[in-house]
């Protein structure tokens, strides 16, 4: 029963769920920061005299969490991790928030060009 070692195919490693879970976690974090940013913006426009904080930290937090989430979602799609609820929700939320950020950016550029 001698077998040639070249003919034995190695088993393919089963992809883990690490990047899917990280994508989901960063999508929830980006959503949380985005909601805080919307609440803070609403407070700014409704009651200017009580508004003391700058929203720059929240803006950077949303952008960084969204970019990390999109990166991990892309890696999990490339590694062909199993499509579970975490991965589907994470990918959807990350690309939705990324689209919103990109839309806000393009809207600001268009408004700036019309001045």
Automatic annotation (TrEMBL):
<protein>
    <submittedName>
        <fullName>Uncharacterized protein</fullName>
    </submittedName>
</protein>
<keyword id="KW-1133">Transmembrane helix</keyword>
<keyword id="KW-0812">Transmembrane</keyword>
<feature type="transmembrane region" description="Helical">
    <location>
        <begin position="90"/>
        <end position="110"/>
    </location>
</feature>
<feature type="transmembrane region" description="Helical">
    <location>
        <begin position="57"/>
        <end position="78"/>
    </location>
</feature>
<feature type="transmembrane region" description="Helical">
    <location>
        <begin position="21"/>
        <end position="45"/>
    </location>
</feature>
<keyword id="KW-0472">Membrane</keyword>
């Amino acid at each position: 029963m001698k077998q040639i070692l070249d003919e034995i195919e190695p088993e393919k490693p089963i992809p883990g769920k690490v990047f899917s879970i990280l994508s989901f976690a960063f999508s929830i974090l980006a959503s949380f920061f985005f909601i805080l940013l919307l609440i803070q913006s609403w407070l700014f426009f409704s009651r200017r005299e009580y508004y003391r904080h700058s929203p720059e930290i929240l803006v950077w937090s949303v952008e960084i969490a969204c970019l990390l989430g999109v990166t991990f979602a892309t890696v999990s799609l490339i590694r062909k991790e199993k499509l579970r609820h975490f991965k589907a929700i994470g990918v959807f939320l990350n690309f939705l928030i990324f689209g919103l950020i990109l839309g806000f950016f393009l809207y600001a550029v268009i408004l700036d060009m019309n001045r």
